[in-house]
Amino acid sequence: MSEAATELRAELRALVSEYIPEGFLGAFTDDPADLETAQRFCRVLAERGLLCLAWPRQYGGAGASPWEQTVVREEMWAHHEPRGAQYMGVNWVGPAIMRHGTPEQQQTHLAAIARGEVIWCQGFSEPNAGSDLASVQTAARRDGGRWLVSGQKIWTSYATIAQWCFLLARTARGEKKQHGLTIFLVPMTRPGIEVRPIRCMMGPHHLNEVFLTDVPVTGADVLGNVDEGWKVVQQVLSFERVGIARYARCERLLHAAPSVLGDEWQALPEELKGRWARMLVHCRRARLLAYRVVATQSRGRVQPGDAAAYRIAVTKLDQDTAEVLLDIIGQASLGSPEARLFRLAVDDHWRYSQASTVSSGSIEMQRILLSRSMLAPA
Amino acid sequence: MNIELSDDAAEYGRQARRALEAAGGDQLAQRAAQDPVLRESLLSPVLRELGAWDLAPREDAAELEAAAALCRSAGYWAVPYPVAERLARPADIDADGLVVVARPRLAAAVAGLRMRWAAVTIDGQRSIAVARRPAGFPLGNAFVAELELEHVDARGAKDAALGLVLPCWTLLGMLDRAIDLTRAHVLVREQFGRPLAAFQAVQFQLTDAEVERSGLDVLAAYALWSVQVGGEDALADALALRLAALEAAEVVFRIAHQLHGAIGFCDEAPLSWLSRHSQPVRRLPLGLSATRQQLAGRLGRRGLTGLFSGQAQPEVPAL
With an 8 Å Cβ cutoff, are A370 and B319 in contact? Predict the structure, then answer.
């Protein structure tokens, strides 16, 4: 197992080195070439059977072990996620369709995701439903044999470039707000969908508003059962239990710093070098906490507290590392081309890290999960 | 790599915790404080019964894990006895135990015990150490004695790594207990008509403590594995563990005291004893800043071994 993971890491690094240009900072920049790089890289991964490595073989995957999946997460995030937005289709849209989709939906969507051809966006958050997701107000009202969906989604990453939306809408008012929700798989070309980008510090494509005005959907678009979408949402969130391997990018940047700074490294204040060493310890800590979650999962057990503890540790690591790296480059002249690229990578990391305790489940939600697990009756 | 103890070691740790509880549990530290000379007679029988001194942590990976589990259980009850130090005894020096020392203060929590000690510095200088009789045992002293050293050799690099790692397991046990005590307290203690545990401010402090404790847990297993492998990284890994352990202890004990309120300072509260007895392992041989400085000095430009350090290492835990 260890050998397979090592070989996979080497293969991924070789592909990154061949297909991803030096200085690549992700697909979502003002340069459209970066998005094209990511789309091409997805096709390359797909041709080699590496894009959907974790999927079962019957759906075009390789049934990779949890440890191989961990290697993919680490290498992709460390290298600024060269899969662009497609990681979402691979990580949770595909698995949700495998579990809840009709044969027609599986045929339509799974092969397209596996070929690296399609970008999805997640129509979950709304102006008044963020961490409290079950409070969504976007409503689908009956109109003969179909529904018409109206409402507003916000913070919807990649909506400007997505072909499909994994849309959560209210189809009924139940006793509890978790009841009466439904998931629709909707092409972004449907009439009534308007996307407005929100400019933000991470760059384009990350944040958008999506306005839905009488968007027609039918029973064929429903994933799972009508009014039972909350179950799907919970599973989607559990697919992402380990989440992004943020520690991998932190570690890569921290390790690069001394060689990029060259002789100037020696002149750094000893206190700053101490903080650098401390962050390397915290990278290791976060990585081992992630491995603990993976190990528990691979034994078929779930300990939500462990996953939450990891996510708290890794998101704080992301921000702490960014501060230390910015202090380091602030003390250096960084005149070489390599050093200039490093400065851009650190700046990019700092901007992204500000969102790490907010996106994909805020740190407060993780603390709630962890405290529930700690305070539950023994 | 390893991120958790084997089932056998974990079970041994559980048995040790029960045996130490039966031998006095929280009372051990209090009785030893009243009469430090009692330490030996209070602890020797139960530790002998547990087979503590039959363990050969330097010779066998399973026994090293058992030793770590025993240290953790000793920490859980704030056992007033240098269990980790005795388990780290060197193989080739006639001594009952090993302490890691650093100038300028050459000291260890070995006062009042009639034993022969070996000492090692971080850079591997080994000595025979004689503990001076302390002038007294103030409440915060926790049996610390100054040491006089007689140099032996410079072959102690591996001793230093083991001698740093095992006390971190003791400290981990102390953090386990501090969190258990705090959890129990906030579930029972009511203010404004609700248990403290119902307040989100309290819940979030508990989670901060738990993140530190669980991070130390995995790092302790990793460093233990590194010591067992005995490679060049062992000392840096041990210092990395110590750094994380000292940071974790600061956070956990501060939160534990805060959430206990005034009762946490009282002698009737186990936290009070636990917190005081955590001091020697947190300050000696190196406190937080000195540990960080030592680690940074050793890492140089190379960094810790990891995903991007360029050194070969197993990819995933052996489970």
Answer: no
